Amino acid sequence: MAESLTRPVLQDRDLLAPQQSELKRIVSAFLLSKIATLGAIIFALFLLIALLAPILVPHDPALQDLKRRLAPPIGLGMEKASLEFPLGNDNLGRDILSRLLVGSRVSLIVGVSTILLASSVGSLIGAMAGFYRGLLDNVVMRIVDVWMAFPSLLLAIAFGAALGPGLANLVLALSLTIWVVYCRVVRAEVLSIRERDYVLAARAMGASDLRIILRHILPNVLAPILVISTLQMGIVIISEASLNFLGVGVQSSVPTWGGMLSDGREFMRDAWWLATFPGIAISIVVLGVNLLGDGLRDALDPRLRRR
After folding, report:
1. Is this prediction's pTM over 0.85?
2. pLDDT for position 119
């Protein structure tokens, strides 16, 4: 009687043990990589600053003060430098530090929203193409091939100009440029997964195609989707800054890192700090995201496991 009561508990532990050991291996492999840990710290700081930006901003980012026009940052020994504006002021006298903090929120919102939309749509289309194959697979792959023949930034500019300025339009324009990456990778994974025993067993038990895709196939391709999403985040941030630099992103009244770069390019000789600080912010965040993506790739892919 006692054995029959304890047997299900032992079986549950036996089922959970491989999953827990695999999770521990992934976490250990990630933490052992100093580069990946550095990337995670940089990305975590970026998230924290973006989320707390309304609290951290010392001044109104849209407040103009022409008396402090092109005031330099502290430490340069120039007359207009002030501790109240540690990074100086732009060509309209607005506080650069406040605009950098608010601009980080735009980069975070656009980056996360674009990745979620593109990964969801691209992964679902790729899963259906790989699962059904045949005519659907051929049509989808030909569309993907044509889509990837164009430079992603060129497509983003075209979609951004066609949709017009706005945060939602910017997210949609960037999503339309990167969904094909998820589609191609997920389709290749599904072609191998669809013939495995647990998929065949689910089909034999009468499970619908949609249930098999959502319940048995997509959860098994989350690892490459996660890695791609992390690496694509840096590309999205650069693309967002590029579109705002060219004036086809969000409204000009919204502080963005790309818009700050565009405003500062005319004053590079006399006020280099206008474009330098947003450029440094973009570089640091993209570097951190790329390091985080490399660490996740090494931890999740056994073939790249570091010895």
Report:
1. no
2. 92
Measure the CA–CA gap between 220 and 225, rounded to whole angstroms.
Answer: 10
Q: What is the residue whose two structure tokens read 């051929």?
A: 138
8 token code pair: 């299900």
**So what's the architecture of 83-304 in CATH?**
Orthogonal Bundle (1.10)
Q: Residues with Cβ < 8 Å from 202, sequence gap 6 or more?
A: 211, 212, 215, 216
Q: Where along the chain do its domains lie?
A: 83-304
Amino acid at position 100, single letter: L
DSSP 216: I
Count CB-CB contacts under 10 A for residue 302: 11
CA dist., res. 305 & res. 262, Å (int): 42
User: What residues of the chain score a pLDDT lower than 50?
Assistant: 1-19, 306-307
pLDDT in tens, 93-106: 899 999 999 999 99
| Contact yes or no for 223/230 (Cβ under 8 A) | no
Tens digit of pLDDT for each residue in 247-277? 888 887 888 899 888 888 888 888 888 889 9
Helix (H, G, I), strand (E, B) or coil at 231: helix
Residues 6+ apart with CB under 8 A from 227: 293, 296, 297, 300, 301
52-67 residues labelled b (16+ CB within 10 A) or e (exposed)? ebeeebebebeeeeee
* pLDDT of the residue at 25: 63
The alpha carbon of residue 70 and the mean position of all alpha carbons in its chain are separated, in whole angstroms, by 33
